Amino acid sequence: MIKEETISCFNPFDGVMEESDKEEELDATKAKVEKVREENEKLKLLLSTILNNYNSLQMHVSNVLRQQQRASMELDQDKDNDFDVDISLRLGRSEQKISKKEEKVDKISNEKKEESKDKRSALGLGFQIQSYEASKLDDLCRQVKNANAENKCVSSRKDVKTVRNENHHQDVLEEHEQAGLKKTRVCVKASCEDPSINDGCQWRKYGQKTAKTNPLPRAYYRCSMSSNCPVRKQVQRCGEEETSAFMTTYEGNHDHPLPMEATHMAAGTSAAASLLQSGSSSSSSSTSASLSYFFPFHHFSISTTNSHPTVTLDLTRPNYPNQSPDDYPLSSSSFSLNFSSPDPPPPSSHDNTLNFSGLRKQAPLSTDSLLAHYRTRLSGQQ
DNA sequence: CGTCTTTGACCGGCGC
DNA sequence: GCGCCGGTCAAAGACG
């Protein structure tokens, strides 16, 4: 190579020129190489920064998971101790013994949860954060319970006994019945493509009727997760114009454990039922705030129709008053329902209606989306 | 074959 | 007492 160059530079005139050209070329190439090296260093630095960020995020996620595990363990203990207390319409866990069949159902639902967890994220944040939030919900349930207890203490001696009684939710039900009131109902109005909204439970349809007041048929379902579960629900379209909105009415107490997806709704509806039980006087800030926590962006009201004390939760009607971002629930976007329709419902024909305002605004950037964001950046850089 | 849905019949509460 | 109406039952059919 050098020899060839020497030979080619044999011409004394051209040789000087070519030599200086070559040197310039060499310098330019060296400069280019240097630039590329610098860019390479920069890219390396950027990559290491991203990797550091990713690692720290992973650390954060693992911390969250650890906290969640601790919280869910406490949640289980609390459920065993006092979650069953105080709530008349309890769609959640009960004290009754679980049959083998129900255990099987529970196992299956847990397996399904694992599957869906994997689908949501490789790190499984969706489900984990739900259960982390569940511990918070449990705390709020206790707040509702305490608020109810305070109200009861004020009202009468008999009620004081009732509050102290472990099964006082049964007493409250009896009081309702004595007063001519039937079982507590919780209506949930939701926008949904499919009337059989995914509320975490398995339902078996046992009837359909066209009510006089509404030309659209009303479907009757009973819970099929347990053979003796007394919980019923009715599903009815809200009107011809709002074909995507359904009113789902829940009635009764589950006698079996529920999957986590169902306990979210159950905790909220239980809070609603507790609010009802404590009477119209319970429009205290704590109880309404608790309901706002369970159904953060939506409108809810209490009414009594045909002797049925009813809490109506309107998930089609956003309610976004002012609030600080610190008040965001951790994973409000994990709710299983589809809140697509912003249309307000027709004015309620119910009487004795108390309205409460939700306290929370928009869902924060979830950890899932944060991870997705980082993954996109990583894949783009590498 | 088991499970679920459909649908007409039936029952009980309520108002007149 | 009667009729209306909401809710439930249960047989038959559909479906996987």
TrEMBL record:
Residues 314-360 are annotated as: Disordered. Residues 192-259 form the WRKY domain. Residues 324-341 have a biased composition (Low complexity). GO terms for molecular function: DNA-binding transcription factor activity; sequence-specific DNA binding. It comes from the Eukaryota. PANTHER family: WRKY TRANSCRIPTION FACTOR 36-RELATED. This is WRKY domain superfamily. The lineage of its organism: Eukaryota, Viridiplantae, Streptophyta, Embryophyta, Tracheophyta.
